[in-house]
User: Fold these one by one.
Assistant:
Number 1:
Amino acid sequence: MDKMHNSDKTCWNCPAAKLMGNVDFRACGQAREFKAGLDEEEEIVIECRRRPELGYFEPNITFEQCPEWIASEYGYILKNMRVMILGIDGYLGWTLALKLGKLGFQISGLDNYTRRDCVMEKGAHTIIPIERMTQRLKIARDILGININFRKIDLLDASKVREFLEEVKPEAIVHYGEIPSAPYSMADSEHAVRVQENNVIGTLKLLWIIKDVVPETCLIKLGTMGEYGSPLTGRPLFEGLFPADAIIKWDEREWSLGGETTPRDPVSFYHASKVQDTFNVLEACKYWWLRSYDIMQGVIYGVYTEELAVDKKLRTRYDIDEWFGTVINRFVAQAVTGIPLTIYGQGEQIRGFIALNDAMQCMIRLIVSPPEPGQYDVVNQVSGLYKISDLAEAIAKIGNKKFNLNVMIKRIENPRVEADNHPLEVVSRKLPRFFGFTPQIDLEEEIERMIEVLLEEEIKKRIDLKKHTILPVTTWQGEKREMKELEKYEPGTRESKGYKPIFDT
Ligand code: USQ
């Protein structure tokens, strides 16, 4: 059998290990001083919370050797690992809860239904119907046999969050509990502040609680590829930190940039909130030896995972309004309901994308392969790069050829401030090389699957009901108005132009 991606990780990475002495991970260059009473010769020792019979020992048992870690298709998995999902009611949170639950993880989660409220504020709804949370929990239990320990808690309510963490003592925390919309954050001052408060302050409070309650847990925090922007020079988007051989030259001198954070150039106040999170998480790891994976995820799309497909009642939400719908999900809904696919501006924007099922696979692989204490690491979670105009073309063609729809494409004035014609090189090496990730979802197949679901009578009706929330009216200047039409065309009548994406895996 081939070695699993996390076979050689050791107690050092394991959340069950309690560090007992003589460890100092300060990586910032500060001089190391031992605390009184600790002998410099003393070895680093741990105690295992799961195997107390081992006493104090050196943290060098590998996952492969440890009976608490069992082999699975996602690598070694810590038996009954306790994973807490923040934002468990959302598109990703619910999907991950079912997948992890099915694999035998112990799932807990919190949510305050912000996503439901924000979508309702827009006058929209999830076009795939979802039940109230109490009902969803029952359905998960009845159909899949999964018990989820859920609390309705606002992340800003630190005392409730602390209490829940103290009760559960999660061994990994997946943080999806943020408001994920660029246009929502640009609507006006109130919305911009709400996004930054919820996201930045919520995460900052969480970090202090983790330090006090579960410092050994791994925080798996959802960032975004949009933190980087799209440098017009074509400089590659490294995975958060510069690689060791990156060099900066200036004034006839040169330095290594290795390990420094790469520049960020966010494209909305929402994306800027994620940048601030990045620095706060990095600092917490540095000051308190917390550990975290910060995930720069591409634009998500899709409806499929094995668990969601078991029963219609298990499905996750699907938004299409101008605030909360992501581009592929929106285009598919537009195709189904006869609205021309709305390309913003030139349509030569290139973005990283990942299907729901592939994103879930990445998350599991990260959860079971935690970083070391004090380690802050970044992964670019992307499975393909596409131009917006090419996506519109692909969706329109599938819609017309396979489903007999009559899909048109329309370029409209870009409501956003963003480069809509630029080079893009994305480095995404860590997930495939160190976590065993291989994408399983083919873009075209997933689009077909999405069209099939959206053509179901009940869902088609729900799209039609909320058609009016699809066209963008929120501009980056904070004014609301209709966007001018620039060009309308049939698929197959235009050549793809501009830059070609470079995807470095
Ligand atoms: N776009 C169109 N037409 C549309 C909708 C979008 O041309 O009808 C264009 C936008 O101008 C943009 C691109 O498609 O250039 C992506 O837009 P999006 O709304 O799908 O995604 P974005 O605002 O970037 O945000 C989404 C998620 C966010 C996540 C991000 C990943 O809402 O939570 O962080 O994708 S990324 O874009 O890689 O930063």
Number 2:
Amino acid sequence: MSVLIIGGAGYIGSHTVKLFQERGLDVVVLDNLSTGHRELVDVEHFYEGDCRDSEILSQIFTNHNIDTVVHFAALSLVGVSMTNPYDYYHNNVYGAIILLGEMVKHNVKNIVFSSTAAVYGEPNNIPIMEEDPTFPTNPYGETKLAMEKMMSWFDTAYGIKYVALRYFNAAGADSSGKIGELHQPETHLIPLILQVPLGKRDQISIFGTDYPTDDGTCVRDYIHVNDLADAHFLAFQYLAKDKTSNTFNLGNGKGFSVLEVIDTARKVTGHPIPATEEGRRPGDPAVLVASSQKAEKILGWKPKLQLEDIISSAWNFHKNNKIL
Ligand code: UFG
């Protein structure tokens, strides 16, 4: 049996490919390399192609004995999704229809799916629980929620079982220093902060200092990418054993403000990292912190790495990476 990892050359995908291989699984990767990097995956069966292409999916399902798909391939920039919803619906939602359709045709029964905290929108309660209301405030979150709902109906109709993993703020890099976060353009806080000590930017902008938080800056729940990869493996095992669909939040359960993240990065890098205060970035909720108790209880998942480990590992990767 093999696992098909779609989007396996991307950030979280590449860490998951490595972990699945280390745990002895045969991995097949499909990636269109629109945002992924071929150098991030060391795999025998690599297909360059798009999940909206039913022919390549059919070819993969015919050539390999796939019982589970891990689906990362999606556009994921909140801001861009606001100005270009067409691409987001086309890539994410249409891509999922094609994929699920081919899974039905080829009798592939399990899917582990990358979802997001963006499905909740502006939360009413902190920490956020899986059963809290889902009101996305941008097309990115809407497309992920639509994909979750689609999988639920495909379970009812065709018996395809899914685990949707709602990530909070993925960050950090593998300790090998060989794989890490390489977005272009980069919009995420931690890699942007690290561009200052790397000499790629002069300062970091703080988007908003008037939020209702202790220091006025936004609070987020940062989770190490290898802890996320581990959750995908546990979800894969859960589907094989329990054969039921489910949805889980994945976060550390602890929030850090933008200022706390910058201070931790100063400590890790030994660089003063100048910061400037700017206005709010549209669409940013003040606080997003997960309750991951359900994943802990049902999947046996417990994140191992905290903010300082996350920033140290990202720093180790960015100092040494020669890919970009
Ligand atoms: N921020 C800054 N300066 C920057 C970049 C970011 O102050 O230069 C702030 C943001 O305003 C936000 C925090 O840092 O308050 C974190 O921002 P990121 O862009 O790193 O992450 P987000 O919280 O916006 O995004 C994350 C996930 C998305 C998910 C979203 C849900 O990366 O996939 O949470 O709101 F959709």
